[in-house]
Write a structure and sequence with these properties.
The protein is α+β, with helices and mostly antiparallel strands. The protein folds into 2 domains: 170 residues, no CATH class; 70 residues, no CATH class. Helix content is 53%, strand content 14%. The chain has a 5-stranded antiparallel sheet, with helices on one face.
Amino acid sequence: MQKIIIKQFGAVKDAEIEINKVLVLIGEQASGKSTIAKLIYFFKSLRDELFDHIYQDNSKDHFDTLSDLILPIQEKFYDFFGSTYHLPYFEIIYYYSIENNMFLKLSLTENKKLHAIFSDKFLSGAFKNKASDMKKLLQKTTQSDSIHEQIAYEQNKYKNIQKLSSFVNEAFCSFQTTSLFIIAGRNATVSYSELFGKYLFANIQSKIEDNKLQTFKKKEQTVDESLMLSFIERVSKIKNLFEKYGNFEGLIEFYL
């Protein structure tokens, strides 16, 4: 069972919500429904952040809690919700497993920087050792010209990627394949022309990248743009699949 506790964040003054397979949020306009949904998505998507950092980082062959986990979480939060400098002090706790007391707590320091703390059960010695092992496995390369050894190398790399996926899923107590936030007004992004889609995608991407370059105090909230970008990417992939296979029957035959 997962749970989120929110205190003094946005329109949400005090909330404690269990995260079930189906969660319905009902309330007046501007009462915090979207804020809660975006926070849940934020915490669930951190699994992907950990996967990417272990998989892509070649600067070191060991797992470092600060650079591989805490700093990416802080940056993602700032990119999503903007600078915390002008926000009142808040506290958000997300339990990835209530039973095992595995949680991530976010709050503000005295100088209004985001402070992220994982429970001891989450960031155990075993977790760090396994993450380091994953890094070492994925950084192995081959210099062989033998086609057989190259094939064997690629097969082992694929197996290690699968191991990494299983590892982060287990760490975040999540066994879903991916997270997707379906934005409001999604019909507009599904029915647009290809040219408009490319323009919209480039425009949003440019705004997000520009915001990443801003100093801490000047960072703006780009959570809606980030979610829109992910949604457009997913829609584009689905469109391409339908163009390739024609219909649902073609897709089913392909995957079977």
